[in-house]
Amino acid sequence: MLSQIPTQDACLTCGACCAHYRVSFYWAEGLNMPEHYTEPVNAVYSCMAGTNQTQSRCIALGGEIGQAVSCRVYEARSSTCKSVQIADEQCNKARIAHQMIPLISIPLHDAENDEDFDQVS
Ligand code: SF4
Ligand code: SF4
């Protein structure tokens, strides 16, 4: 299968994971978002509106998937959103579902002999 090395801003031209899964989280994580952006799942969990359905697409996702996208609540997004990492299993599953080429995970090497190295996580 074809795959490609991700650029640092790969998410800005993707958005697949924001339109594939039900994005649920502990309800209190939604308190910093507009009220209509979240929906209750049960007494403990909420989810992003638009993601609890077959054709999932988060209400906060702006733009066109696979072209140029942005998250309207990026700073307030849930821990569930933050847990998806570029090129991880969930990322590539969503990308494949949207007919996008999966990304290759590149391990970060230890920055030996480079005290000025800042690891971006
Ligand atoms: S599917 Fe992967 S590359 Fe696309 S937005 Fe999500 S984390 Fe970023
Ligand atoms: S809140 Fe933002 S990061 Fe999370 S699924 Fe929606 S658009 Fe994606």
Question: What would your notes on this structure say?
Answer:
It comes from Acinetobacter amyesii. The model has no long low-confidence stretch (mean pLDDT 90). With 121 residues, this protein is an alpha+beta fold. 25% of the residues are buried. It has a 3-stranded antiparallel β-sheet with strand order 1-3-2, with no helix packed on it. Helix content is 12%, strand content 15%. It is built from 2 helices and 5 strands; from the N terminus they run βββββαα. It has one domain. The structure holds iron/sulfur cluster (SF4) (2 copies). The site of one iron/sulfur cluster (SF4) has 11 residues, from helix 2.
Summarize the structure.
With 121 residues, the protein is an alpha+beta fold. The protein has helices at residues 79-83, 89-97; strands spanning 24-26, 38-40, 45-48, 61-64, 68-71. The structure holds iron/sulfur cluster (2 copies).
- Give the topology string: H per helix, E per strand: EEEEEHH
Summed up, the helix count is 2
Percent helix, as a range, is: 10-25%
How large is the share of residues in beta strands? 5-15%
Structure ligands? iron/sulfur cluster
What assembly state would you assign to the polypeptide chains in this entry? single chain
Give the domain tally.
1
Secondary structural class: alpha+beta
| Mean pLDDT metric | 90
Q: How many strands in all?
A: 5
Biggest sheet: strand arrangement: 1-3-2
What Rg, in angstroms, do the CA atoms define?
16 Å
Our measurement of the CA-to-CA distance between the termini, rounded to an integer number of angstroms, reads 27 Å
Low-confidence stretches: none
Q: How would a crystallographer describe the biggest sheet?
A: 3 strands, antiparallel
